[in-house]
Amino acid sequence: MKKPVPFSFLLHYLPATIIIKPAIGMFNIYFDRKLVFIFRQTAKNPQHNGIWISTQREHHNSLKTQVRALTDFKLEEGFDTAWLLLSDKNDDFENAAIQLCELVSAKDNRIGKITPMSRALFEA
After folding, report:
1. Any stretches that span the bilayer, and where are they (predicted)?
2. Alpha-carbon distance 105 to 57, whole Å?
């Protein structure tokens, strides 16, 4: 039995051309040749549940100003990452998530990275 995509209501706010690829305990969301989000909701390490936003550090301040519910993504001590996190525990999760989807739909260049996998998906 396949595990359902968490936060599936958000798929209505994303372009029809997204590609969803399951990963271990999460789902990678690709659009416009880029990895844009990871949707994650599992029992293991629930502090990492929510939407992971694929971005670059130079865009953190402007994205966090525009979507105030975003936080820096923190893994174990000393591991630096350019991802941002919208926690599924945030009181404004639904509104902030829709706002992020709208940014992706508008092809906001602050969200998304071309990865070897995204390149392969869209060249196929």
Report:
1. 12-31
2. 21
pLDDT in tens, 77-120: 656 678 999 999 999 999 999 999 999 999 999 999 999 999 99
The residues spanned by each domain of the chain are 53-110
pLDDT digits (tens, 9 = 90+) for 20-62: 999 988 999 999 999 999 999 999 989 999 999 999 999 999 9
> From residue 16, how far is each of 13, 51, 91, 92, 112 by CA, in Å?
9, 19, 28, 25, 17
The 19-23 sheet, strands edge to edge: 19-23, 26-31, 34-40, 50-53, 84-87, 71-72
Q: What b/e string do you get for 14-43 counting C-beta neighbours within 10 Å, with b at 16 or more? A: beeebeeeeeebbbbbbbbebbbbbbbbee
